[in-house]
Amino acid sequence: MTLPQTETITLDLDGPVLHITLNRPESRNAMSLTMVNELMEVFAAVKDDSNVRAIVLRGAGGHFCAGGDIKDMATARQKAAAGDSDAYVSFNRRFGEMITMANQQPQVVITVLEGAVLGGGFGLACISDVAIASQGATFGLPETGLGVIPAQIAPFVVERIGLTQARRLALTGIRFNGDEALRLGIVHDVAADEAALEDALASTLKAVRRCAPNANRVTKALVLKVGHEPMDSLLDQAAVDFAAAVNGEEGQEGTLAFVQKRPASWNQ
Fold first, then answer.
1. Which tens digit of pLDDT belongs to each residue from 199-233?
2. How far apart are CA 244 and CA 241, in angstroms?
3. Which of 93, 42, 16, 99 is closest to 65 using CA atoms?
4. pLDDT tens string 41-100
5. Whole-Å CA distances, 22 to 29, 64, 246, 264
6. Which domains does the chain have, with CATH numbers?
7. Parallel, antiparallel, or unpaired for β 138-140 and 17-22?
8. What pTM did the predictor assign?
9. Left (φ > 0), alpha (ψ -120 to 50) or beta: where does 239 sit?
């Protein structure tokens, strides 16, 4: 696997963990079209690499992501004024393609949320498998206050926290902290300070390492299908996948490790 060259994000492959840092601190890591495209390139590069078991997304400079880049919106406006009737549609839809890709990524996706977690950043938090937040982080969907809509984000917010709360957040644009994000079910853990945040991330990565790589991939694919496929056919396929897992290398190694009271070979 070869990771792509990037300008707006930094990449650090640490064993089975790929750390992706949104790196536009001067704009609180606002998500430009370049950043969207670079994230998609990275997701595609590691998708089929079973050696990469977790992806950690965080932001540089004390902020996760303050939403979309206003400069790109201005560019789309210029294209529309020049006669490109699809300028806004393609610009907005590209972010939706990226967040869908992130949602379906077979690795465990972990977000570390500090500072601004707004708009598109909020959307990324809502598709992560594990979200760890600083108590002082600021969450919100500010789009309607700007006269636009959270077009590509709202469906994922509904899936994360349910229709009732998603309506409230999207239609009021209120800001709230990490504790409230935990109460709403957006995040799974809240840290009081930087040390606690790093400890929570380390604990999560340790837990991921205890899980068999392929078993995690198949399990994630299964849970993502719930509500999108008929339950009977979903359970039929799950039974087939279970049989394959039991008879596969991981199933045999996991059983043997349990009997021998030792860590499984993938726990490293």
1. 999 999 999 999 999 999 999 999 999 999 999 99
2. 5
3. 99
4. 999 999 999 999 999 999 999 999 999 998 888 888 888 888 888 889 999 999 999 999
5. 6, 7, 39, 34
6. 9-209 (3.90.226.10), 212-259 (1.10.12.10)
7. unpaired
8. 0.96
9. alpha
